[in-house]
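wait is this the right file?? whatever heres the structure
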């Protein structure tokens, strides 16, 4: 009986050993411990799951290059120290950039952009509080010579260059005009270099702090005024406070605008509609429009290719009462020593960002 029990246990042990050996063999065949010819073991590399493309929708393309090759993916905003070179990268082989417009206006040599095969690089040396603003990049898609911005692959970050000596973003203009319109909000653009600053809006005369539902503050834009009217005109300034001494912004003149947006409204008035040879005539083309909207003029007239004429352009702001301010622009064409070939139709064209308006008058012989 004891012998039979011993033999049974021995057979069971042999079966277990054989099963373990088969399991180890199968593992080796599966590649967990491969051996190259020559006896060297090779560590198996399992394929990695690909991350979602960094340029995909919902992910930021924009990164900041830090010290020692480290990178920081930028969010909606970031606060940086002035003076230290800013280096931004945007992944892609064809990238467009956006940055504070004054860097282009003054052709600032501190700014450089370079495109490589895999990314584009923006470098701004010696940044200051004045460089605070929106920085963005986007992928450019091209089909032959036609190119456009990919709306699904754009990244934007507002960068504060925090300077406690300049809580407000410096401006080259020390007295700015802000136009108030009944159909849209007005913005008093006193932006700050630190999102932690507490900012208030003040009327200069009579001294008064402006608050309530009319006014909201966005540190990236300034004070936003809703439902404005002539009663909101005046000289205003902003005050910013941190732990240090309060600072005051530049001053802003708020003017109410009566003229709605649209193509130029043009009138044409000749000094006379009839003339004789040797006379001098002038024709005045007038546009009444929005105060800050530029208007350009062009003329078509008889003898245009044959003789020069005198054209003078001027513009000024006018107050039409009840606090309404508009801009009046003139273009005056003068013909001296009138000749027969100068008789005919004179056309004035006025153009603004909203469109073009053409009007005409005819000069005939007396």
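ok assuming it is, sequence goes like this
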């Amino acid at each position: 009986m004891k012998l039979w029990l011993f033999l049974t246990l021995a057979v069971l042990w042999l079966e277990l050993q054989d099963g373990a050996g088969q399991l180890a063999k199968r593992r080796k065949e599966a590649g967990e411990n491969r051996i190259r010819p020559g006896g060297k073991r090779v560590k198996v590399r399992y394929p990695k799951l690909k991350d979602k493309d960094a340029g995909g929708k919902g992910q930021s393309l924009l990164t900041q290059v830090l010290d020692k090759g480290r990178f920081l993916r930028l969010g909606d905003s970031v606060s940086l120290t002035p003076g230290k070179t800013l280096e931004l990268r945007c992944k892609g082989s064809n990238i467009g950039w956006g940055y504070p417009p004054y860097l282009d206006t003054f052709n600032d040599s501190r700014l450089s952009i370079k495109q490589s095969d895999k990314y584009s690089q923006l470098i701004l040396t010696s940044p200051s509080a004045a460089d605070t603003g929106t920085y963005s990049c986007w992928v450019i898609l091209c089909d032959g010579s036609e190119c456009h911005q990919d709306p699904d692959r754009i990244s934007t970050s507002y960068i504060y260059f925090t300077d406690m000596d300049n809580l407000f973003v410096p401006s080259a203009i020390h007295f700015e005009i802000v136009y108030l319109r009944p159909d849209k909000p007005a913005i008093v653009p006193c932006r700050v270099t630190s999102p932690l600053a507490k900012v208030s809006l003040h009327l200069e005369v009579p001294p008064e702090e402006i608050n309530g539902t009319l006014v909201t503050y966005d540190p990236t834009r300034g004070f936003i005024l809703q439902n404005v009217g002539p009663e909101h005109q005046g000289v205003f300034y902003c005050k910013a406070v941190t732990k240090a001494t309060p600072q005051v912004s530049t001053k802003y003149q708020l003017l109410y605008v009566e003229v709605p947006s649209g193509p130029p409204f043009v009138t044409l008035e000749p000094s006379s509609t009839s003339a004789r040879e040797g006379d001098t005539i002038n024709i005045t083309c007038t546009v009444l429009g929005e105060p800050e909207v530029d208007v350009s003029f062009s003329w078509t007239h008889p003898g245009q290719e044959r003789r020069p004429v005198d054209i003078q352009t001027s513009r000024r702001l006018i107050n039409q009462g009840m606090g309404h301010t508009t801009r009046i622009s003139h273009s005056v064409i003068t013909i001296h020593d009138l000749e027969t070939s100068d008789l005919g139709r004179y056309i004035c064209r006025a153009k603004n960002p909203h469109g073009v308006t053409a009007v005409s008058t005819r000069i005939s012989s007396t």
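The CA atoms of residues 183 and 227 lie 8 Å apart. so i think its the right one actually
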